[in-house]
Specification:
Blueprint: E1 12-22, E2 27-33, E3 43-44, E4 47-49, H1 58-70, E5 76-85, E6 94-102, H2 105-114, E7 119-123, H3 137-152, H4 168-179, H5 185-195, E8 198-206, E9 213-218
Parallel strand pairs: 1-6
Antiparallel strand pairs: 1-2, 1-4, 2-3, 2-7, 5-6, 8-9
Length: about 230
Protein backbone atom coordinates (compact mmCIF):
# COMPACT_ATOMS: atom_id res chain seq x y z
CA UNK A 1 0.00 0.00 0.00
CA UNK A 2 1.37 3.42 -0.93
CA UNK A 3 1.90 5.92 1.85
CA UNK A 4 1.24 9.62 1.81
CA UNK A 5 3.92 11.95 3.18
CA UNK A 6 1.14 14.18 4.44
CA UNK A 7 0.00 11.28 6.63
CA UNK A 8 3.51 10.21 7.64
CA UNK A 9 5.68 13.35 7.47
CA UNK A 10 9.43 12.80 7.45
CA UNK A 11 11.63 14.41 10.12
CA UNK A 12 14.67 16.41 9.05
CA UNK A 13 17.67 14.03 9.15
CA UNK A 14 21.28 15.20 9.42
CA UNK A 15 24.78 14.07 10.37
CA UNK A 16 26.77 16.00 13.01
CA UNK A 17 30.47 15.48 13.68
CA UNK A 18 32.52 16.00 16.85
CA UNK A 19 35.99 16.22 15.27
CA UNK A 20 38.84 16.11 17.79
CA UNK A 21 42.58 16.73 17.56
CA UNK A 22 45.32 17.11 20.16
CA UNK A 23 45.67 20.39 22.01
CA UNK A 24 48.54 21.40 24.29
CA UNK A 25 46.74 20.26 27.44
CA UNK A 26 44.17 17.82 26.07
CA UNK A 27 41.77 17.98 23.15
CA UNK A 28 40.42 20.58 20.77
CA UNK A 29 37.27 20.35 18.69
CA UNK A 30 36.43 21.79 15.27
CA UNK A 31 33.58 24.35 15.13
CA UNK A 32 32.08 26.23 12.20
CA UNK A 33 30.19 29.51 12.10
CA UNK A 34 26.73 29.18 10.59
CA UNK A 35 25.99 31.52 7.70
CA UNK A 36 22.24 30.85 7.45
CA UNK A 37 19.27 30.64 9.74
CA UNK A 38 18.50 29.10 12.07
CA UNK A 39 21.27 30.29 14.40
CA UNK A 40 23.01 32.44 11.76
CA UNK A 41 26.32 33.69 13.16
CA UNK A 42 26.42 31.02 15.88
CA UNK A 43 29.15 28.43 16.15
CA UNK A 44 28.27 24.76 15.75
CA UNK A 45 29.70 21.32 15.20
CA UNK A 46 30.21 20.53 11.50
CA UNK A 47 27.33 18.68 9.89
CA UNK A 48 25.14 18.30 6.87
CA UNK A 49 22.22 16.61 5.18
CA UNK A 50 22.16 12.97 4.17
CA UNK A 51 22.30 12.74 0.35
CA UNK A 52 19.89 9.90 -0.37
CA UNK A 53 21.04 9.56 -3.98
CA UNK A 54 24.75 9.55 -3.10
CA UNK A 55 25.33 8.13 0.39
CA UNK A 56 25.29 4.34 0.60
CA UNK A 57 24.78 4.37 4.36
CA UNK A 58 25.22 6.60 7.41
CA UNK A 59 28.97 6.01 7.61
CA UNK A 60 29.34 7.05 3.97
CA UNK A 61 27.40 10.25 4.67
CA UNK A 62 29.60 11.00 7.69
CA UNK A 63 32.80 10.43 5.68
CA UNK A 64 31.57 12.65 2.85
CA UNK A 65 30.70 15.47 5.24
CA UNK A 66 34.00 15.06 7.08
CA UNK A 67 35.95 15.30 3.82
CA UNK A 68 34.00 18.39 2.73
CA UNK A 69 34.68 20.17 6.04
CA UNK A 70 38.30 19.13 6.67
CA UNK A 71 39.74 17.62 3.49
CA UNK A 72 40.45 14.45 5.50
CA UNK A 73 39.07 11.14 4.25
CA UNK A 74 40.42 8.34 6.43
CA UNK A 75 40.58 9.22 10.13
CA UNK A 76 39.17 7.28 13.05
CA UNK A 77 35.39 7.62 12.74
CA UNK A 78 32.80 6.13 15.13
CA UNK A 79 29.05 6.50 15.33
CA UNK A 80 28.22 8.07 18.68
CA UNK A 81 24.46 8.33 19.20
CA UNK A 82 21.21 9.41 17.57
CA UNK A 83 19.62 12.61 18.85
CA UNK A 84 16.05 13.52 17.96
CA UNK A 85 13.34 15.77 19.35
CA UNK A 86 10.70 18.21 18.15
CA UNK A 87 12.51 21.05 19.97
CA UNK A 88 16.17 20.86 18.87
CA UNK A 89 15.64 22.72 15.58
CA UNK A 90 13.16 25.58 15.01
CA UNK A 91 12.50 24.23 11.49
CA UNK A 92 10.71 21.22 12.93
CA UNK A 93 11.18 17.65 14.11
CA UNK A 94 14.83 16.68 13.49
CA UNK A 95 17.02 13.62 13.88
CA UNK A 96 20.80 13.89 14.03
CA UNK A 97 23.13 10.90 13.84
CA UNK A 98 26.28 12.08 15.61
CA UNK A 99 29.79 10.78 14.96
CA UNK A 100 33.16 11.12 16.68
CA UNK A 101 36.22 11.65 14.45
CA UNK A 102 39.82 11.74 15.63
CA UNK A 103 42.39 13.51 13.46
CA UNK A 104 46.06 12.65 13.63
CA UNK A 105 48.54 15.46 14.20
CA UNK A 106 49.43 15.27 10.51
CA UNK A 107 45.81 15.52 9.33
CA UNK A 108 44.96 18.23 11.87
CA UNK A 109 47.94 20.29 10.68
CA UNK A 110 46.78 20.02 7.07
CA UNK A 111 43.21 20.86 8.07
CA UNK A 112 44.30 23.99 9.95
CA UNK A 113 46.37 25.11 6.97
CA UNK A 114 43.23 25.01 4.81
CA UNK A 115 40.86 26.48 7.39
CA UNK A 116 38.72 29.51 6.51
CA UNK A 117 37.59 32.39 8.70
CA UNK A 118 34.34 30.58 9.53
CA UNK A 119 36.21 27.55 10.92
CA UNK A 120 37.78 27.54 14.37
CA UNK A 121 39.48 24.89 16.50
CA UNK A 122 38.49 25.38 20.14
CA UNK A 123 40.25 23.96 23.17
CA UNK A 124 38.02 21.72 25.28
CA UNK A 125 37.71 22.57 28.98
CA UNK A 126 35.91 19.94 31.08
CA UNK A 127 33.07 18.97 28.71
CA UNK A 128 32.54 22.23 26.85
CA UNK A 129 34.15 25.05 24.84
CA UNK A 130 34.36 28.81 25.29
CA UNK A 131 31.25 29.70 23.32
CA UNK A 132 27.58 28.80 23.24
CA UNK A 133 26.89 26.29 20.46
CA UNK A 134 23.87 26.21 18.16
CA UNK A 135 21.06 23.65 18.39
CA UNK A 136 21.84 20.97 21.00
CA UNK A 137 25.47 20.74 19.93
CA UNK A 138 26.76 21.43 23.45
CA UNK A 139 24.96 18.27 24.56
CA UNK A 140 26.33 16.30 21.60
CA UNK A 141 29.86 17.56 22.36
CA UNK A 142 29.57 16.50 26.00
CA UNK A 143 28.40 13.04 24.96
CA UNK A 144 31.27 12.74 22.47
CA UNK A 145 33.84 13.74 25.08
CA UNK A 146 32.40 11.24 27.54
CA UNK A 147 32.73 8.48 24.92
CA UNK A 148 36.32 9.36 24.06
CA UNK A 149 37.50 9.67 27.66
CA UNK A 150 35.76 6.44 28.63
CA UNK A 151 37.39 4.50 25.78
CA UNK A 152 40.80 5.95 26.59
CA UNK A 153 40.62 4.06 29.90
CA UNK A 154 40.42 0.63 28.26
CA UNK A 155 41.55 0.90 24.62
CA UNK A 156 44.22 2.10 22.21
CA UNK A 157 41.99 4.93 20.95
CA UNK A 158 44.50 7.80 21.59
CA UNK A 159 46.96 6.40 19.04
CA UNK A 160 44.74 7.84 16.28
CA UNK A 161 45.59 11.36 17.48
CA UNK A 162 49.30 10.91 16.85
CA UNK A 163 51.23 11.27 13.59
CA UNK A 164 52.06 8.19 11.51
CA UNK A 165 55.30 7.60 13.43
CA UNK A 166 55.49 8.07 17.21
CA UNK A 167 57.42 6.97 20.26
CA UNK A 168 55.90 5.09 23.19
CA UNK A 169 56.65 8.13 25.34
CA UNK A 170 54.58 10.29 23.00
CA UNK A 171 51.75 7.75 23.11
CA UNK A 172 51.78 7.74 26.92
CA UNK A 173 51.74 11.54 26.92
CA UNK A 174 48.53 11.55 24.86
CA UNK A 175 46.83 9.25 27.36
CA UNK A 176 47.94 11.49 30.22
CA UNK A 177 46.76 14.69 28.51
CA UNK A 178 43.29 13.29 27.87
CA UNK A 179 42.90 11.60 31.26
CA UNK A 180 44.47 14.48 33.19
CA UNK A 181 46.73 12.26 35.27
CA UNK A 182 50.16 10.61 35.16
CA UNK A 183 50.54 6.92 34.30
CA UNK A 184 53.17 4.48 35.49
CA UNK A 185 55.63 4.04 32.61
CA UNK A 186 56.36 0.32 33.02
CA UNK A 187 52.70 -0.61 33.57
CA UNK A 188 51.64 1.45 30.56
CA UNK A 189 54.20 -0.15 28.25
CA UNK A 190 53.24 -3.63 29.44
CA UNK A 191 49.59 -2.89 28.59
CA UNK A 192 50.51 -1.63 25.11
CA UNK A 193 52.72 -4.68 24.49
CA UNK A 194 49.90 -7.03 25.53
CA UNK A 195 47.49 -5.31 23.12
CA UNK A 196 49.93 -6.03 20.24
CA UNK A 197 48.48 -3.03 18.41
CA UNK A 198 51.60 -1.14 17.40
CA UNK A 199 54.85 -2.27 15.81
CA UNK A 200 58.36 -0.75 15.65
CA UNK A 201 59.39 0.91 12.39
CA UNK A 202 62.63 -0.83 11.54
CA UNK A 203 65.54 1.58 11.33
CA UNK A 204 63.57 4.67 12.39
CA UNK A 205 64.43 6.47 15.63
CA UNK A 206 63.47 9.80 17.20
CA UNK A 207 66.72 11.70 17.76
CA UNK A 208 66.92 13.57 21.03
CA UNK A 209 69.51 15.07 23.37
CA UNK A 210 69.69 11.81 25.29
CA UNK A 211 69.25 8.25 23.99
CA UNK A 212 67.34 7.97 20.65
CA UNK A 213 63.82 6.52 20.96
CA UNK A 214 62.36 3.82 18.74
CA UNK A 215 59.54 4.96 16.45
CA UNK A 216 56.34 2.91 16.22
CA UNK A 217 53.26 2.80 13.98
CA UNK A 218 49.82 1.19 14.09
CA UNK A 219 49.90 -2.38 12.82
CA UNK A 220 48.33 -2.63 9.33
CA UNK A 221 44.61 -3.39 9.41
CA UNK A 222 44.19 -2.40 13.06
CA UNK A 223 41.62 0.15 14.22
CA UNK A 224 41.28 -0.20 17.99
CA UNK A 225 42.42 -2.81 20.50
CA UNK A 226 40.80 -3.23 23.92
CA UNK A 227 42.55 -3.92 27.22
CA UNK A 228 41.29 -6.56 29.65
CA UNK A 229 41.18 -3.92 32.40
CA UNK A 230 41.32 -0.13 32.69
CA UNK A 231 44.65 1.53 32.26
Amino acid sequence: METDERTYPRPITTIDLAIFALAEDGLEVLTIQRAAEPFAGWWALPGGWIHVDEDLDLDAAARRILASKTGVRTPYLEQLQTFGTSKRDPRGWTVSVAYVALLSEDDARDCKRLSQTDVLWRTVAADTVDTRLAFDHAYILAAALSRVRSKVEYSTLPVHLLPRAFTLGELQSVYERILGRKLDKSAFRKRIAEADFVEPIVGEMRRASNRPAQLFRIRPGQITAFFDRTI
